[in-house]
Design brief:
single chain, Rossmann fold, 37% helix, 266 residues, two-stranded parallel sheet, 9 strands, alpha/beta, binds nicotinamide-adenine-dinucleotide, seven-stranded parallel β-sheet
Length: 266
């Protein structure tokens, strides 16, 4: 039984759709009636999600695309629109943890790679979707930032990742300002610790373990809500709300979804 049919008739792009938060959002948007354009650089993952959506009676197209390579993404959108005719919502979510380590040990190209993937990739994802949203004279874009770089500045070795996520929050608010007159809303979700595969997308330098940081006493458990870490499905519900007309007067918001974790860890 679908939780809602509020996405009926809409076409939704989700990047990073093969795993974690992107997968959960794609499944929920499809359940609520959207046709999905699934983007991920991992073919097996993205095809798996397409198969899950189809098995549940939904419709989806899957594309193996690295969002930091603009031509790949642009071509995928062109192909998808030739099938589905339109794009109504974008969840620009793909991201990696990237390099983790002391600033003086991070290689210049490792820093570049983290920002290329997360920041440039988000820019590209938004840029090439805009003409399709403008054609409908309406649209909703949701970006994935993080507590890292918006509220939490105490994670050892996270300078590259946090910089990328702060940039996404800034870019999203600028996009909300710029695209508002075109009736395109842009919001930013900033999750706390969510159980996904993201730790496997990091390059943890050995020196990260020995970093000399001031010890901080945390209370028992860092997530006040009793369930502990968040689940991708919980972030997906927020993304579906922000994508739908239920949030029609919300734009430029950075919504933290962290079980109040950031009140303890700052
Ligand atoms: N899991 C957390 O605790 C957490 C917290 C805050 C923010 N986030 C953010 O959530 C987003 C989703 O991460 P997740 O936790 O679901 O991780 P995940 O690793 O489970 O999923 C990320 C997906 O994005 C894809 N991807 C990464 N770079 C890509 C690229 N350049 N092109 C195409 N696909 C790409 C990966 O293949 C993967 O399928 C990321 O932007 C991440 O920074 C995660």
């Amino acid at each position: 039984m679908p939780s809602s049919s509020r996405m009926n008739g809409k076409v939704s792009v989700v990047t990073g759709a093969g795993s974690g938060i992107g997968r959960a959002a794609a499944l929920l948007l499809a359940e609520e009636g959207a046709r999905l354009i699934l983007i991920d650089r991992d073919t097996q993952f993205v095809e798996g999600v397409r198969a899950e959506i189809e098995a549940a009676g939904g419709e989806a197209l899957a594309f193996t695309v690295d969002i930091s390579v603009p031509g790949q993404y642009r071509d995928a959108l062109e192909q998808a629109v030739s099938r589905y005719g339109r794009i109504d919502t974008l969840f620009a979510n793909a991201g990696i943890l990237g390099v983790v380590g002391p600033i003086e040990s991070i290689e210049d190209d490792e820093f570049d790679a983290t920002l290329l993937n997360n920041v440039k990739g988000t820019f590209t994802s938004v840029k090439y979707a805009i003409p399709y949203l403008k054609a409908n004279e309406k649209g909703s874009i949701v970006l994935t930032s993080s507590l890292s770089g918006t509220r939490v500045f105490s994670q050892k070795g996270f300078s590259a990742y946090s910089t990328s996520k702060a940039s996404i929050a800034a870019f999203g608010q600028m996009a909300a300002f710029e695209l508002g007159p075109s009736n395109i809303r842009v919001n930013i979700v900033a999750p706390g610790t969510i159980e996904t595969n993201i730790s496997g997308s990091g390059d943890i330098e050995p020196e990260a373990e020995d970093m000399d940081t001031k010890p901080v006493e945390y209370p028992d458990g860092t997530v006040p809500l009793p369930e502990g870490s968040g689940k991708p499905e919980q972030v997906a519900k927020l993304v579906a709300f922000l994508s739908s007309d239920d949030s029609e007067h919300i734009s430029g918001a950075v919504v933290h979804i962290d079980g109040a974790e950031s009140l303890f860890v700052g």
